[in-house]
Automatic annotation (TrEMBL):
The keyword Transcription does not apply. It comes from the Bacteria. InterPro entries: DUF2062. Keywords: Membrane, Transmembrane, Transmembrane helix. Signal peptide: none annotated. The keyword Cell membrane does not apply. The chain crosses the membrane at residues 12-39, 59-78, 114-137. Pfam families: DUF2062. This is DUF2062 domain-containing protein. Residues 2-144 form the DUF2062 domain.
Length: 159
């Protein structure tokens, strides 16, 4: 990722989008992947960097650890009572039946506080990761240029 020819801004933007959207994956029943590619392309970010950011967000387990904080944040921002729909446990056969949209609606509606909180956390982590990756990319680029100039200055000695 650090040797990508696309430039620091594209790589940083792609990574930030991938990392930020990872915060929403669990709580949207993975529906966020339907808009993952279009969002990266519309923002003109690097898609490979977005995938790497998504994987790093996935293996960090941050969405799982931040669940209570996201719930409290969502409840603070959206203080209205949300009517929870009681539903029976879903089975695999429900996925292939005509009730899939009812199932997804009940899943998303019951976790609206967490969804609001994780959206805000994802935006914050995305902005932070943008600047971190941009700094690391530029630092690596300058280090490579310095090494390249050092090699050009030193003549090759053959014995």
């Amino acid at each position: 990722m650090l040797r990508s020819p696309e430039g620091a801004k594209k790589v940083s933007l792609g990574f930030a989008i991938g990392f930020g959207l990872e915060m929403l994956v669990i709580y949207t029943a993975s529906l966020v992947y339907l808009i993952f590619y279009p969002i990266v392309r519309l923002a003109k970010g690097s898609f490979p960097a977005a995938v790497i950011g998504n994987i790093i967000g996935k293996i960090s387990f941050l969405p799982v650890f931040l669940f209570p904080f996201a719930y409290a944040l969502g409840k603070m921002i959206y203080p209205f009572h949300v009517k929870k729909i009681h539903h029976k446990p879903f089975t695999i056969s429900d996925l292939f039946s005509s009730h899939i949209f009812t199932m997804l609606k009940s899943l998303l509606q019951s976790e609206v506080y967490v969804l609001i909180g994780m959206t805000i956390i994802g935006i914050v982590f995305g902005v932070i990761s943008y600047f971190v990756v941009h700094y690391l990319y530029e630092k690596n680029r300058k280090l490579r240029l310095k090494k390249r100039k050092k090699q050009v200055r030193e003549p090759l000695v053959q014995i």
